[in-house]
């Protein structure tokens, strides 16, 4: 069984909004260390690599490694049904063909459940070598967006 719980769904919401601009669908590889995604866009120009460590979740359980093919546009549509402060829980059974996404307000006044079909995606896992960069720049994302 896989279960991941975030106390503020807005964090994952922003990540998926950004990724869906490059990818239509992707495979989320879940293990006891967290959730990983690696994929190339359709034009093979951009490489997306995401790693959400299990320690970043309020609750994280992954009994065995699981690969979930997800349509990102559908997932983002579901994510629009929650506010940024809602508690979000994602669940999937072993060998399941659906993903359950639950939202609840922090005072548990409102709860909503969504079920999304998973896809069978054949994507190769890309080996990304560790790279030492000669320069690392840190700046607020708003400033970076303004410059671009």
UniProtKB/TrEMBL annotation:
GO terms for cellular component: PCNA complex. It is found in: Nucleus. The keyword DNA damage does not apply. Residues 1-125 form the Proliferating cell nuclear antigen PCNA N-terminal domain. InterPro entries: DNA_clamp_sf, Pr_cel_nuc_antig, Pr_cel_nuc_antig_C, Pr_cel_nuc_antig_CS, Pr_cel_nuc_antig_N. Keywords: DNA replication, DNA-binding, Nucleus. Pfam families: PCNA_C, PCNA_N. GO terms for biological process: leading strand elongation; mismatch repair; regulation of DNA replication; translesion synthesis. GO terms for molecular function: DNA binding; DNA polymerase processivity factor activity. Residues 127-147 form the Proliferating cell nuclear antigen PCNA C-terminal domain. Belongs to the PCNA family. PANTHER family: PROLIFERATING CELL NUCLEAR ANTIGEN (PTHR11352). This protein is an auxiliary protein of DNA polymerase delta and is involved in the control of eukaryotic DNA replication by increasing the polymerase's processivity during elongation of the leading strand. This is DNA sliding clamp PCNA. It comes from Acyrthosiphon pisum (Pea aphid). The gene is ACYPI003821.
